[in-house]
Amino acid sequence: MRLLVLDAALSRCLAALVVDGALHAEQSREGAHGQAAALPPLAEAVLVGALDAVAVVVGPGSFTGLRSAIALAEGIATARVIPLVAVTTGEALAASLPPGTAAWAVTENRRGELFLERFDADGAALGPAAVVAEPALPQPEGLVYLVGDGATRAAARMAARGWPIALGGARQVEALAVEAVARRRLAGELPALAVAPVYVEAPATT
User: Is 120 inside any structural domain?
Assistant: First the structure.
């Protein structure tokens, strides 16, 4: 399968071509602003040959980044008449961990709070994404691995309370993790997900 991955949910724009589970080409640009202008040339740089599907990260994350990535993904998928697959930020971050690992994806919402997505050891979401203040982080029922750009901050708070947590390595979304989730969704192993921004608070144009 030849899959185009697009992401601008956090503080980096990413476009990548993944072929049969291997990274074929990747372009990225650091920065939390300017995604609408930055992402199209990144995608153009990796688009070589035919595509079987497009996967786009739909949030939670930057309001402008999500809209930009989804609009570009929709345009490419429509023009090529190929499937478009949505992947949440948390799904992609959690997919970086070994199978059988319970994960919490914790990302910054740029308002001082955190976006939280929780997954069981089978990768199933434990409810919708939520916004939590750092002091209000819930207690896990067992050991969980924290991933995402807010994971270090959350881990410090939770460890101080003596809760069972560990830090995973992923702070940003990676192309191969997005591809792994998209492949499972295309195969029917994960529930269908609308290709629309995942907003868990009133949008802010950041």
Answer: yes
Q: Which structural domain range is residue 17 located in?
A: 2-89
User: What's the pLDDT tens digit per position in 105-132?
Assistant: 999 988 889 999 999 998 889 999 999 9
Residues 6+ apart with CB under 8 A from 76: 4, 43, 47, 51, 54
CA distance 194 to 104: 22
Domain end: 28, 58, 89, which one? 89
Same domain, 65 and 142: no
Asked whether residue 105 falls in the same domain as residue 154, the answer is yes
Report field, pTM of the whole predicted structure over 0.85: yes
